[in-house]
Amino acid sequence: MLAVFFGLVSVVALIGGLAATSAPDAYTRYTMPSWAPPADLFSPVWTVLYAVLAVAGWTYWRTDGENQGFAAYGIGLLFNLMWISLFFAGGSTRVACVDIILLDLTVVITIGLFYRRSRVAALLLLPYLAWLLYTTALNVAIIALNDTP
Q1: Is 23 exposed, middle or buried (0-12, 13-18, 19+ CB in 10 A)?
Q2: Summary mean pLDDT of the chain
Q3: What is the pLDDT of residues 16-49, one digit of tens each?
């Protein structure tokens, strides 16, 4: 089952990676806040976070996790994929911002649901949530600093 979770998350990462091929252009197209990370940091951070996300899902599954937890986890993966597509491929920072806020809320709900069965699974999602909140702030800053759709 661990391979299934890695496979699921890898599909999201692969499709997201294809949608984010224009990510380096975004750094030249948009005015970025001073605290924006270098463009080459995103890929390694997301690789680690996707691996941890897969392990969190598998850890929750091992506890005979409830369907609500799996539903929230799956919805979160979908919102994640949508944000990458909206922000980079779609060029819609405002719609992407709405999406990432929904993703933030979904991950908070997922952490709460996972916590009921596995504290470890819930704790594994905290670095993911922290990076998402940072990315949300970056998305908001890009909107504020640029005339974006």
Answers
A1: middle
A2: 91
A3: 878 777 777 777 788 999 999 988 888 899 999 9
Please report the pLDDT score of residue 101 as a whole number.
Answer: 98
Whose CA is closest to 130, among 10, 67, 48?
A: 48
Asked whether the beta carbons of 53 and 100 are under 8 A apart, the reply is: no
CA distance 148 to 143: 6
CA 80 to chain centre: 4
How far apart CA 74 and CA 24 sit, in angstroms, is 28
- Give the separation between CA 99 and CA 90, rounded to whole angstroms: 13
pTM: 0.91
Asked if residue 53 lies in contact with residue 6, where contact means CB atoms within 8 angstroms, the answer is no
Cα distance between residue 51 and residue 99, in whole Å: 22
Angle between helices 126-145 and 93-117 (to 10 degrees): 160
Question: Tokens for 83?
Answer: 């944000």
Flag residues of the chain having pLDDT under 50.
Answer: none
Token output for 96: 């992407």
> What integer pLDDT is reported at residue 149 of this predicted model?
63
